[in-house]
Design a protein that fits this description.
The chain is α/β, with parallel strands linked by helices. It has a single domain (3-189), classed as HUPs (Rossmann fold, 3-Layer(aba) Sandwich). Helix content is 39%, strand content 19%. It is built from eight helices and six strands; from the N terminus they run βαβαβαβαβααβαα. It has helices at 16-28, 51-65, 81-88, 100-108, 131-139, 143-146, 163-171, 181-189; strands at 3-9, 33-39, 71-76, 93-99, 119-123, 150-154. It has a six-stranded parallel sheet, with helices on both faces. The N and C termini lie far apart (41 Å). The mean pLDDT is 89.
């Protein structure tokens, strides 16, 4: 059975922390393909750069992660996440790469039916959720959910900045180290941010 990793987000922009997370995820569980669910119109981030530019930046950034294949970037619309999985990874073993803030929100919002669908590779985003909070929320799950919830906690990326906090650095000319050189080049060529 082939395995598909699902990595979702707005990725505005895809930065070195995202690339490092992908490398760690692949090291932990080598997967056969990567589908990036890129939020098309995220109501929480109305200022997001155009979808097509973000999709191109994701593809460039994933190449920098050194995976042995290209990412498939698919639009992620608001709606049942289960539909996205069924459409883009039918029959595959599913691996979901998520930040700790996403999994904590999923659990706190009561979307527990999503948890058994995938094996989760969770990266701690200390500026949003600490490891203790993550473990506390997971330990508070009902036993029947805990029994079917498969997860691992990945090492925290060296670059843990939020994309929305990176954008002002780009505007000020301080993107080096936060973005890969090819992403910086794309942003400059298209006068983004």
């Amino acid at each position: 059975m082939s395995s598909t990793a699902i990595y979702t987000g707005t990725f505005d922009p895809f930065h070195t922390g995202h690339a490092q997370t992908l490398r760690e995820a692949y090291r932990a569980h080598p997967f056969d393909r990567l589908v990036v669910g890129l939020h098309y119109n995220n109501p929480d981030k109305p200022e997001a750069t155009d979808f097509s530019h973000r999709a191109n930046i994701v593809k460039i950034g994933v190449r920098a992660a050194g995976l042995p294949f290209e990412a498939e970037v698919q639009p992620l619309y608001h709606g049942p996440f289960e539909n996205f999985l069924q459409k883009h990874a039918p029959g595959d073993k599913l691996i979901r790469i998520v930040g700790s803030d996403t999994i904590v929100t999923t659990i706190k919002d009561g979307h527990l039916s999503r948890l058994p669908l995938c094996h989760y590779l969770i990266t701690v985003r200390p500026q949003l959720t600490n490891r203790e909070e993550l473990e506390s929320v997971i330990n508070g799950l009902p036993d029947r959910i805990k029994a079917s919830f498969s997860f691992e906690i990945l090492p925290t990326p060296a670059s843990t900045a939020e994309a929305r906090k990176i954008r002002p650095n780009i505007q000020a000319g301080y993107a080096k180290g936060l973005l890969t050189p090819d992403v910086i080049k794309y942003i400059e060529e298209h006068s983004l941010y």
